[in-house]
Structure formats: structure tokens, C-alpha cells
Amino acid sequence: MSDMKTNYECFTVSVDDGVAHIRLSRPEKRNAMSPSFWVDLPAIVRDIDDNARARCIVISADTAIEGQGGERPIFTAGIDVSMFGGNELGSDKNHPQAGAAFYLEVLRLQDCFNALEECRVPVIAAVHGGCIGGGVDLITACDIRLGSADSYITIYEINVGMTADVGTFPRILNHMPEGVVRELAYTGRKMGAEECERRGLFNTVLPDEAALLDHAMAMAREIATKPPLAIYGCKRIINYSRDHTTAEALDNIAVWNMSMLLPQEMMEAMAAKGQRRAGNFSELPKRKLG
Q1: Mean pLDDT, residues 15-43 taken together
Q2: What does the DSSP 8-state code read for residue 29?
Q3: Of 14, 41, 97, 120, which has fewest CB within 10 angstroms of its CB?
Q4: Where in the sequence numbering do the catalytic residues fall?
Q5: What is the strand order of the sheet 4-7 is part of?
């Protein structure tokens, strides 16, 4: 896996030592999710996955805001409000096709974050500052969430007369009690990092941005040392088990291992551990495109 670095309107992407780092890079716009965000993010994630470019993904944000030194940092302000005035979400409601067009557009936006959940490698969200509206949709689609002490989330849509529709509700209920989710949805209040950790949304809270990124990258590098095919199996089975009965999940695990368990990978893992060296594991196969 060769090192690479690529710039997009909303992101900076780099891959180093088996870890892909996707960084939101529009701090001057509070990392609002502009039209290009919804096109580029799934394309970036699927390119990493399809071409086996990395063994783990970290998503963070450049939260520095020039000229506003005292302002609380923002991980992302959510959907760019300009999208509500254009063709993306601002269709004429009196047009007979408006409802169907809006429905298709929401499905397209949902697919952006589905890409995070569906990719074969784990995704770690490193949240520094405010994670607002669509940002909650984003981080709940990730495998692991870490936060800085000054981070917070808010299901902000209720404050602008909307129902969150890009993925928050079906996913956040996997992490927090229903009553708490209802409170956040109905009030739009901010939930700080400590409460996010206590409620189960954040795995860990770190004191500041530097510690947050160090922890996220160290975790990603640790994941990158493990057998990629086994990590893929873990992610797939965890997702399947979450959405199915115990009996169905047990059968699925048995079929998965019947098909995918590699004795040579197990032997290499044990040998590497005994010899205190890095394992020499097979990469995920590249997906055939086209």
C-alpha cells in the first residue's frame, strides 16, 4: 500500500502505513457539507475499499477558524444551508414530481454515509468540537467514535423544522437508550463529550485535539497490524448481528468461517505474536470494477 495524498474541495486525504486519514478541510465554512461533500466522500471511501488502499480509516476535521480565536471549534456544522435553496433540496413543492425528486435526493445523501458502514475496513471518527446535524449522521455510521473534551453533538434538525433523515435515528439507537435519543431529537440540545462517553456514543474522550488525533491514529495503526480478512469478517458479522436474531447471526458466522477462515493466516498470526514481529498477512482482494 503506497503512501498518497490528495486534496478535494471538502477533504484532504492521505494514506500512510496502512491508515487512510480523511480530514474535513473547509474550516472557514465550519466544515459545512456542500454539494461536493456528498459526491466526494462516498467516492473516496469506496476507492480506498475497492482498491484495498488501507486497512483502517480515520475521519477528523481541521477546526481552526481564522480571525475567530475565541470561538469553540466545529467538527462540522452539518448540511450546508445553500443546498436548501438550489436544485439539490429546494425543488418547487407544487411541482407534481417534487416529492418523488426529494425522496430520491435524500436516498442519495443517505448513500454517502452508507458507504462508511458498508466498506470492509473499520472507520474511526475523531470528533473535535461541535458535531452538528448531519455530522451526527456521519459519525454514527462509523465503527468507533472518539471525542475531545470540548466536543459535543446536537441533533440540530428540530431547531430548523426538520426531521433528521440521513441516518442518525436508525444508527444512534444502537449506541444510546431510546429515551435519551428521543430527548435529543425533540429538544435539539447539545450533549457534551463526557455525557456522550457515559451514554455509550463515544468510546473514549481525550483532553484536547492533539491527544485525540494521537489516540485515533494509534488505534488505527494497531488495527492495521491485524489480519485484514479477519477484520473484514468481524465488521461484517457485527453489522449483521446487530440487525438479526441471535440464531440468524450464529448461522451467518458459521457460514462465513466455513467459507473465509484461513488456517495459514491463523498460523501466521500466532507465529508473529510468538516471535514479537509484525504479521505478514494477505491484503483484502481488490474489487473488480466495471
Answers
A1: 96
A2: G
A3: 97
A4: 79, 134, 137, 157, 165
A5: 4-7, 11-16, 19-24, 56-61, 123-127, 144-148, 204-206
